[in-house]
Write a structure and sequence with these properties.
heterodimer, A: 219 residues, mainly alpha, B: 98 residues, two-stranded antiparallel ribbon, 77% helix
């Protein structure tokens, strides 16, 4: 195994894993219990979707709205899975494990090493996915315990933590003109619908924008 | 709240597992791939807007906008994710005290 794979996997595991603390803090500040917060990191294990569950529930949205928003954000993991399957070639229990750690970062590391060596790409996937899983869950617990001892979330500025986290997740996706246009349209639509729909639904309505924009793509 | 936690987790796992298990050709339709690529962008943008301005079904301007503005500046300056979050949180906390 090349040292570049180990270096990439470990540095990304630690850097991304520590963001789990931010999720732990934000989730408890949104009103979820420590157990619910840790369950999301253990079971859901997909950052944007986890923040969506906490955000929608915290804003007073229904469980169904939270599930729908989270599921729409988790769809992309299915596409990553389809991309990784021919590389990983795993069955049975190993496929269950691989599925759980199929996220943005494990896929990105595997793809970065795929051209040079398929074996390195596989190791990069497992090391990055497994490493992030470990650090993300530890950090979530620490963050949740920390936030639990604070008291009123707004007093500590935690009401700005969730939107800032979403902005941080959105930022790297704004590289093309079409994605900037889609983001701008989604902001307008969500704000326009907020006074008329129950919390959570305006977010789900935003899925119409990529469907319209993506449908017109030239093939 | 547990139903949301379990439901969201089950669906996310189902997507991951189905993706690993179906033939790749199904998901390589360029139109489907483009839409799938843009969905997170739209949802995340919608979430930024709602989490910044909404209070239940009302639109309000409070200390959160200052926190998010500081976050945007930090991201523009290529700050680390945690540094950006801490800057946004401190800004909102400071304004809350005033």
């Amino acid at each position: 195994m090349s040292r570049a794979v180990i270096r990439d996997s470990l540095s990304i595991s630690i850097a991304v894993g520590t963001y789990g603390a931010a999720f732990g803090v934000a989730s408890v500040a949104a009103g979820l219990s420590i157990a619910q917060t840790c369950a999301l990191s253990l079971l859901l294990f997909s950052g944007a979707s986890q923040f969506a569950v906490a955000g929608v529930l915290g804003a007073g949205g229904s469980a169904m709205s939270a599930i729908a928003a989270s599921a729409l954000l988790a769809l992309r993991n299915g596409f990553y899975g389809a991309r990784m399957a021919p590389l990983l070639q795993v069955r049975g229990f190993k496929r269950l494990l691989a599925s759980q750690i199929t996220i943005d970062e494990s896929t990105a590391v595997a793809l970065a090493h795929e051209e040079k060596s398929a074996s390195d790409a596989r190791k990069g996937f497992w090391l990055t996915g497994g490493g992030i899983y470990l650090f993300w869950n530890l950090a979530t617990l620490l963050g949740a315990l920390g936030a639990n001892s604070l008291g009123d979330p707004a007093q500590w500025g935690l009401d700005a933590t969730i939107p800032a986290a979403f902005l941080g997740l959105l930022w790297p996706r704004l590289k093309s003109n079409i994605s900037r246009l889609v983001a701008l349209a989604a902001i307008c639509l969500a704000l326009l619908l907020t006074p008329f729909l129950s919390p959570g639904l305006p977010i789900i309505a935003c899925v119409l924008i990529p469907i319209i924009a993506g449908w017109r793509v030239r093939t | 709240m547990w139903s949301a936690v379990i439901g969201a987790s089950a669906l996310a796992f189902a997507f991951k597992y189905i993706g690993q298990s179906i033939p790749q050709s199904v998901l390589t339709n360029p139109r489907i791939a483009k839409i799938a690529d843009l969905i997170p962008t739209a949802l995340l943008a919608g979430l930024v807007a709602v989490q910044t301005f909404a209070s239940k079904t009302e639109l309000v301007v409070d200390q959160r906008i200052a926190g998010v503005a500081v976050a945007a500046v930090a991201l523009y300056l290529r700050a680390n994710f945690l540094v950006m979050l801490i800057a946004a949180t401190l800004t909102s906390a400071l304004l809350h005290q005033l």
